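Re-running the complex after MR caught last week's input typo. The corrected sequence lines follow. Everything else is unchanged.
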Amino acid sequence: MTIPAGYPFWQRGRAPSLYGGSPDKRDYGGIGAVNAKTDVTAAQYLRLCSDVAALANTSAICTILCTWRPTIGSPLVTFVGCPWADPITVSYAGHAPPSSLYPKVQQVSADQLEVELPVSATDEFGVSGTIIARMVLVTLGVSSVTGVYWEGPTGDRTFVIGGLPPSSTLNLQLVVW
Amino acid sequence: MPLGGIGGVCPLRLGREFANPEQWLRLAVDAAYAATPLAVLLVIEQVGGACTVYGLQRGQSGYAQITAGITATWTNPGGGNNRVDIVFPFSYIDAESGESRSWRPMGATSQVAGSSLVVSGADLVNTSSAHYTIRVEYLTASRSGPLTHLVVVHGITEPRYAGDYGASADKISSSFEGESPYAWQWLQEMRQVRGDAFSTAPGSFTEMENIALARHFGMVQRLAERHAASQTPEGSDQTLGRWAKILDIGTTTNRDWELRSVAAAKFALTIGGPTAAALTAAAQQVFRHNFVTIHRFLGDFDTPPEPTFWPAGVVGPGVLDIGNGVWSSVRYYYLIELTATSDIERARVYGVAKNTFDDLLRSSLPPVCTWGYTFKAPGTGIVPGGFQLGRDSL
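Corrected-run output:
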């Protein structure tokens, strides 16, 4: 079995050479494509590697949709999209995710919730990588609420989102980088 | 790549040994169509206004402080407003290769983190001759510590096409080497020629020599195949420039894959003549998925389509007759139907039509023939609208 080079995407650290696109790559013998209909040249492969690395460098690693429910005490997670687990569309109580692969989203004070991502995850080839999350963009479901903020990350993976209404529900969309 | 280093020698050959054309096209198209932010930045603004930028950006491998290229400056224009101007150069630099790639921030989403003093927005405010500026504006009555702005910057980069990665719809598997590389066949030959007295253990001197010779002979064999492939424009790579010169063609972008498709289309038209099938094949080659069909208005000789001027009679308004008994008919008119999903795409495709396909038709069709383009949807009554017999030829 062939194992992919490097760590999974959620550990970051993407450069063209990870995909075999090192700057000194060249066509053997310098002859270019033998037949343009059947071949991919070193220059074309390098372009692909460079562009894919550039795209991966700014890709989000996780998207979470959830509902802040202060009267119930546990946010409701309605969607999680992340590359280390199947997308989940069946809602779950944020404090009790269906498995350790999914984020824990729990209320930690009257106006704060905490989002905790897994420490690490394993890809389909069995390669484990630390989940390194540094930034989160919080979008609110209504425009009348202001003053929402976030702090973090604590370590690599925990964010606190505050300024939430203490007595009313609110939909949140979180995009994590 | 089951044969390791001996098989994966660039140029990579599509087929079972590497990746089949369908797989390569999917990879290339996914890479070309993917959209991610240009940068995701954390701008930490100290109480005195000094700003430090951290984050992710296209050319940088991983999260880090950004000390070159992107800078941020705080200003206070008064009235309770605060501003952080984030300045971007015209290009990002690939940290590994040092290659410069142009980008253009178009806007941003921003948020103040670690503070309840939100009300924040970001936009592209300035495109100077030297840089782009994204301005984050926010209101704050008072503050007691640093503010952290999260700024997600969206925009465009150099246009990417699957063709830039060596992917095109006419890509096929290499019929020989894609299954078993020449060098691999030569390696078997080298081992057999030396016989049992010489080691074939990995790393042994004779085996390394075997591999070096096999790769060399494989390359020589490739030269012969390349010579054969270069006999037509569609298979040529290093001789593509010569084909462009011979066929007297060019493209507005001079991308290799565009030039190759135009050269192949003109070559086929020149060799095969402007038959209906050859014209359709040429249009498919040049317009690719934007081509629908070529409409003709033939009628029959007893009842020719309007307008037709010929000795057998005149069908149509005399104002379109250019006189002196010149034979002319809408039968000589080609209406090329194209499709586009947006105005931007339509403009690009129309540019290809006027800059490239017009030249192809002008040099391939008899002077009496005329043509036009339409983006009208099929089944909506396509007619040679706007066509003026005779005058179009003039």
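None of the earlier attempt is carried over here. The first strand of chain A starts at residue 39 and ends at 40. Chain A touches chain B through 56 residues (CB under 8 Å).
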